[in-house]
Amino acid sequence: MPLIIKDEYPEKLFREDGKRLDGRDTDELRPIKMEVGIIKNADGSAYLEWGNNKIFAAVYGPREVHPHHLAKPDRGILRVFYRMATYSVFDRKRPAPGRREKEISMIVADCLEPVLFLELYPGTSFEVFIEIIDADGGTRCASTTVAALALADAGVPMKSLVSAIAVGKIDGKIVVDLSGVEDKAGEADLPCAITWYNEEISLLQFDGNMDLDEMNEFMDLATKSLKEIHQMQLDALKSKYITLKEEETKEKEEEVKEGEK
After folding, report:
1. What does the pLDDT look like over 126-149, one tens digit per residue?
2. What are phi and psi of 133, to 5 degrees?
């Protein structure tokens, strides 16, 4: 059962049995589901359920840049539009994009640009539209992860995928994949992302209190979880093409049967 708390947060974020409030261990991810190719009129798309987060991403491009003065003669540009549905949070959100949404749009774009061969598409743009249908902590990391999947589904040349996760500290203990309650009531929050072609950090933000030893432990836990997420991304992409191959084989078999009649 999802934990629903409005404006009030528990004093303790661990249960008496040592588990977190949602039943997870300190190094355990929330349930994750990924799927690609779900928006038919997009050049590439992906859907992600991460705990109670539900996020769509759609990619369009390469296409003409509007307004034209934003175009670059020697390379393409990546534009990301992160939006939260008005009903995605407890208190109804205003429809107009706020400062936080603009900030996260810029963060996701900065994470993804290093893996794209934008120099192959001068004067054009790729646009990524991210829609948060349900929000429950870690949406910037989940959005980066699903946007990378959508770009791969669109066939955009990429050096690798990008995976992201938030690690943090609650009740003095270091944990991975903060939920919404843990994010708001915890002591520290560290979102990070990795580009797999060179295994370098492309996102590292920090809010809270920790020492250097804790920071090293944070990064070790994050790396372990990021590898799990990366494998899920690869499996989601492979699943689509396995399905397409099976459908193609089935169609050919049916054509052969029709020809034999």
Report:
1. 999 999 999 998 999 999 999 999
2. -85, -35
Domains and CATH numbers, the chain: 32-251 (3.30.230.70)
Tally helices (H) and strands (E) across the chain: 4, 10
Q: What are the CA-CA distances from residue 221 to residues 111, 137, 139, 141 (Å)?
A: 20, 18, 19, 15
Residue range 116-128, pLDDT digits in tens? 999 999 999 999 9
**pTM for this model (two decimals):** 0.90
End-to-end CA separation in angstroms for the chain:
55
Q: 164, 111 in Cβ contact below 8 A?
A: yes
| Contact by Cβ (8 Å): 84, 61 | no
Q: With H, G, I as helix, E, B as strand and everything else as coil, classify residue 128.
A: strand
With a CB cutoff of 8 Å and minimum separation 6, the contacts of 72 are 122, 123
